[in-house]
Design goal:
Aminopeptidase; 132 residues
């Protein structure tokens, strides 16, 4: 298994993962709230051998890191790629002096919620709303 900083060669695959993540999110109640465009963006990929099977993007602003997406292709889930991405991120954030990390998990997406909780990211608020 490997985790590495994404390169320009990974950009297309990361975009595909972001789109797949959005498609999967549409299966759950709620919606992911969009983030700002400022700050520094970090991107990581993970996989086996030389094949990328997972990706993650993170935006850092004012000592707060926001995980924008974490995606593992379905056939490679439950083997630790998501955990490896999060652990790598937490180490990098610590080295950068970032004080807070945040992420969003939709109601019903137990896999994402469990991934975040395994690494100490716990719910801080429940946002409710209704389309009118």
């Amino acid at each position: 298994m490997f985790v590495r900083v994404a390169t320009d060669a990974d950009a297309r695959l990361i975009t595909e993962h972001q789109e797949a993540s959005s498609t999967e999110a549409s299966l759950y109640r709620g919606r992911i709230r969009s983030s700002t465009d400022g700050g520094v963006v970090l991107a990581y990929v993970a996989g086996f051998g030389s094949t990328v099977m997972a990706s993650m993007t993170v935006r850092i602003e004012s000592n707060v890191a926001t995980i924008q997406h974490v995606y593992v292709v379905p056939e490679s889930r439950e083997v630790g790629l998501g955990d490896a991405l999060i652990q790598t991120l937490l180490s990098e954030l610590h080295a950068r002096g970032v004080t807070t990390v945040e992420a969003q998990a939709l109601p019903g997406d137990r896999g994402m919620k469990n991934l975040f909780e395994r690494h100490g990211l716990i719910a801080q608020t429940i946002l409710v709303g209704k389309s009118l």
